[in-house]
Amino acid sequence: MGADMPRLTPEHETSVENMFIVGELGGLALIKNAVNQGRDCVDLIASRLAAAGTAGVEGIYDVLVIGAGPAGISASLRAIEQKSEVHHH
């Protein structure tokens, strides 16, 4: 309860550009919130990559998910979904 929490934007972005913290580490240990946060972060990353025209660059990861809690699993699944949408459209 007394631990220092990172400062995050409403989009869960840290002071390091394009680094997001969601789930329990972000201070909300509710499963539904973590799942939504993981999904929302990947959606934001995908939209930024599309706007910059940098999605799918050979040899460069678009997303790196650390952790396999509800937020990490949700983010991973959404990243897979986003990739398939990019390749099929």
How do the strands and helices of this protein lay out in sequence?
Layout: H1 31-52, H2 70-88
Helix pairs in contact: 1-2
Concise structural overview:
With 89 residues, the protein is an all-alpha fold. It is built from 2 helices and no strands. It has helices spanning 31-52, 70-88.
Order of helices and strands: HH
How far apart the termini lie comes to 46 Å
Q: State Rg.
A: 13 Å
3D shape: globular
Structural class: mainly alpha
**Sheet of most strands:** none
Count of helical regions: 2
In percent, how much strand structure appears in the residues? under 5%
E-strand count: 0
In the predicted model, the low-confidence regions spanning at least 5 consecutive residues are none
Secondary structure: helix percent: 40-55%
Average pLDDT confidence is 83
Structure description:
This protein has 89 residues and is mainly α. Helix content is 46%, strand content 0%. The protein contains two helices and no strands. The chain has helices at 31-52, 70-88. Helix 1 runs parallel beside helix 2 (70-88). The longest helix is centred in the middle third of the chain and has 22 residues, at 31-52. It is globular. The model has no long low-confidence stretch (mean pLDDT 83).
Descriptors:
single chain, 89 residues, mainly alpha, 2 helices, globular
